[in-house]
Design brief:
This protein is mostly helical. The protein has helices at residues 10-23, 35-42, 46-58, 77-101, 104-123, 128-146, 149-163, 174-192, 196-220, and strands spanning 62-65, 69-72. A hairpin with a 3-residue loop joins strand 1 (62-65) and strand 2.
Length: 226
């Protein structure tokens, strides 16, 4: 478990730490989160831990189960479908805004990000984490171009939800790396051409294909339906 820092309140730091441990599956589905153990591990009182767990419960990361306590909530494939429906709308809004606000320096930044991801595939067998970092960078630049902090926060929430399903596994196939790069290039070219319709369609295809790859993997690994 990570160490606390002084920059944030104890409750917010504990929230971040526990949420990250849920996302990276350190805490598996249906794991009981014990206030006392967490407080001892972080050397804090139980009060900020309790407050952090309440915040996580409000966001659907954990749930209170009578006679058991606070458990990591197991999301279903239907939950993932909802996450991607929302994310698709948000990403299309972001690229639509980017087309309208793109400048030559920002377009170059987007191009450089795309090239770094392509080089990773050309030069060696990509490391999943590194490839995903570049994926985040590409989408992050689009969000920066859009200038919307709200979109950034909402898309971040949707990404966190999807990562809790072990989304890194969708890149277990080299073909998905290639598909992702092709899809990113289609988005880039549409933005560069300031073709609003093409940009929206390219982003929709990219998110749909990511969702389909996730569903294919997760369905074969027995994630439950609602």
């Amino acid at each position: 478990m990570k160490q606390l820092q002084k920059a944030k309140s104890l409750k917010d730091q504990i929230y971040d730490i526990v949420k990250e441990d849920i996302i990276n599956q350190t805490y598996k589905n249906n794991t009981v989160l014990n206030e006392k153990k967490i407080s001892q591990a972080l050397n804090v009182s139980k009060t900020p831990v309790r407050e952090a767990l309440k915040a996580l419960e409000a966001e659907g990361w954990v749930e209170y189960v009578p006679y058991k306590g606070i458990l990591v909530k197991q999301m279903s494939l239907d939950d993932l479908k909802d996450v991607f429906r929302v994310r698709k709308c948000l990403e299309i809004m972001a690229v639509e805004s980017a087309v309208k606000k793109i400048t030559p320096p920002l377009l170059q930044e987007l191009h450089n990000s795309m090239q770094r991801q392509e080089a990773l595939l050309i030069n060696n067998e990509p490391v999943v984490g590194e490839f995903i970092d570049y994926d985040l960078e590409f989408h992050g630049i689009l969000l920066k171009i859009s200038g919307s902090h709200l979109l950034k926060d909402l898309i971040g929430q949707m990404r966190d939800k999807s990562k809790s399903f072990g989304m890194q596994a969708i890149f277990s196939s080299r073909s998905r790396y290639k598909e992702t790069i092709t899809e990113h290039r289609a988005v880039y070219e549409a933005v560069a051409a300031k073709d609003l319709q093409a940009a929206k369609e390219a982003m929709a295809v990219h998110i749909d294909n990511t969702f389909n790859a996730a569903m294919q993997y997760l369905s074969s690994h027995a994630v439950k339906e609602s």
